[in-house]
Amino acid sequence: MQEQLQKLEVELREVTKNKEKLRKNLLELIEYTHMLRVTKTFLKRNVEFEPTYEEFPPLENDSLLDYSCMQRLGAKLGFVSGLINQGKVEAFEKMLWRVCKGYTIVTYAELDEPLEDPETGEVIKWYVFLISFWGEQIGHKVKKICDCYHCHVYPYPNTAEERKEIQEGLNTRIQDLYTVLHKTEDYLRQVLCKAAESVYSHVIQVKKMKAIYHMLNMCSFDVTNKCLIAEVWCPEADLHELRRALEEGSRESGATIPSFMNTIPTKETPPTLIRTNKFTEGFQNIVDAYGVGSYREVNPALFTIITFPFLFAVMFGDFGHGFVMFLFALLLVINENHPRLNQSQEIMRMFFNGRYILLLMGLFSVYTGLIYNDCFSKSVNLFGSGWNVSAMYSSSHALAEHRNMVLWNDTIVRRSRVLQLDPSVPGVFQGPYPLGIDPIWNLATNRLTFLNSFKMKMSVILGIIHMTFGVILGIFNHLHFRKKFNIYLVSVPELLFMLCIFGYLIFMIVYKWLVYSAETSRVAPSILIEFINMFLFPASETNGLYSGQEHVQRLLLVITALSVPVLFLGKPLFLLWLHNGRSCFGVSRSGYTLIRKDSEEEVSLLGSQDIEEGNNPVEDGCREMTCEEFNFGEILMTQVIHSIEYCLGCISNTASYLRLWALSLAHAQLSDVLWTMLVRVGLRVDTTYGVLLLLPVIALFAVLTIFILLIMEGLSAFLHAIRLHWVEFQNKFYVGAGTKFVPFSFRLLSSKFGDDMA
């Protein structure tokens, strides 16, 4: 490869050099042609009337300034012609006047078109000059001045025949140079095209070789300096593939000594490898952006596949908008093998890489849009409303029922601007809508009040369930790493604190939904008042949701109060107890259990007695070495900070889930505003101009819907869903302090072995 490239380089340099010479000669000939054309108008000599002069005598015999001598002997005129840069004309003329003391006649004219400088290649404006001088000495001075100002001097013909002959010769040479240049460029293009065919393969080969040598430089020699030793991490499931690859490599390379592999024990924390496919890769990237999981830690990406698009859809709930997003993502999924999508611009490539996330987000938005019964801010009556308006008329009921109910008649209907449906009237409310919100709420004036109450309670319920699930996942971490004391002293108190306060809040919401009906809704107590009253001593008198409510609330508060000191002091005191040599209940060190290297918790566990494995001299020596490193104060401070963060975070994180309600409300209101200001205006125009006006109105509505509601609102809901997962969910169990396993692969050449190794 090196020989081919050197040969190609020499050939290209030679051809390019010849091309530049030909191009320079061509530019000089073109300048000479322009000079002859312009100077022809400067001086017209008639050969028949041209007098014959003697040669000017030498300077030693007569003085040049002796005018009588010049007049007596005569002097031959000399000419210097050429081209000069436009910016140097004035200075050039002054210099000639001062040096030659007026014994020159300078005539110049500007060229019509700019020409390229043969020396620099710059296209500039030129002036053609013709200098007439007396005497040979002045001629030398003129030529030196022309050289100083970098003028392009060309021979000036003495006769018309000579001018014509030179002009014809120049034209012939210019045509020949054009032909030669054209053939040279064709040859150069052929050479470059042939070289370009192998450039990509050569670059790949060089990058692969550099990558291989880079990895070999990370290996170490054995004591004999005859073989390389590489210490690598390998997934346990791929060990047989590694052995097979080493055997095939040794066989194909013809090595006399085959390569072999041994597993070695280590105390270092292994990197984290999570195998993904094109569907799960996007969700795993969302989790990895927060932090790569520690070794064998619970991976939240599995649950994020469902919870992330669902929480997004709660904020973005609209059947129409979700269906448009679903179609866009489906189009990307169907054409995912198209080469233009893989090589598209950065923004489009981001959409393409997250096509499966967009697909689920759109699908879940369709589902929540059906629940909200919202399609481009309008409701869809699929199953028929559960409310009956005719049952509110007085004619539908007996006279005895008129006294206890507020019914309608023709007068009330005509005079009232707002009519209220009373679900306590028999026949008005016939049952709930089969799926989602009843479409009649789209016509109600108190629709926003009803939906706000529903979405706010729904957000609180979803948030508490989401956070509780995160605490439960932490239990699986403790079980896997065989730290059961963390379950009893950390996870259980956290669950009790969460459920005794906020779990009870969910119970009150659901209980009120189930127990109280339309007939008893006026006497139903406020959940907010009851929840606040739970923390007051003495509690204010309220109706209560159920009998014995006060005793239940006192019990829950006592459990909450007892869980706080356990959460603060339980784990530090237990680790101190282990450090002092007591037996450990439910703690063992069999297998790999290291989460954070040299953490205080690991130090205390290493210093404790191991029930399952028993004691041995090695462990005793390790215990003696690590006991001195145990720092109770640091462990206590860490646990106190974690406990305070958790207790306060339960309140703030629950309030943070109200963003589900806020963004859902904002999305619905923006959609309603677009419909009201555009489509409704277009539909209210009469039939004469309505069709003509409706087309641009619908087009504008579609553009604003895509850019405002789909892109901007979608991005906002996407970012809020990420925040809910990172801050409110993953911090309950996910450490994210690991190192990602990035094996050697030629696929990483473009990013890892690019410019940094050049």
Automatic annotation (TrEMBL):
UniProt keyword list: Coiled coil, Hydrogen ion transport, Ion transport, Membrane, Transmembrane, Transmembrane helix, Transport
TM region(s), chain numbering: 310-334, 355-372, 458-476, 488-511, 555-578, 689-712
Compartment(s) where it occurs, according to its Swiss-Prot or TrEMBL record: Membrane
Coiled coil: 5-32
Subcellular location, principal: membrane
Record-linked InterPro entries: V-ATPase_116kDa_su, V-type_ATPase_116kDa_su_euka
Pfam family, one: V_ATPase_I
UniProt topology in membrane: Multi-pass membrane protein
Stated role: Essential component of the vacuolar proton pump (V-ATPase), a multimeric enzyme that catalyzes the translocation of protons across the membranes. Required for assembly and activity of the V-ATPase.
Similarity section: Belongs to the V-ATPase 116 kDa subunit family.
Protein name, entry field: V-type proton ATPase subunit a
Organism lineage string: Eukaryota, Metazoa, Chordata, Craniata, Vertebrata
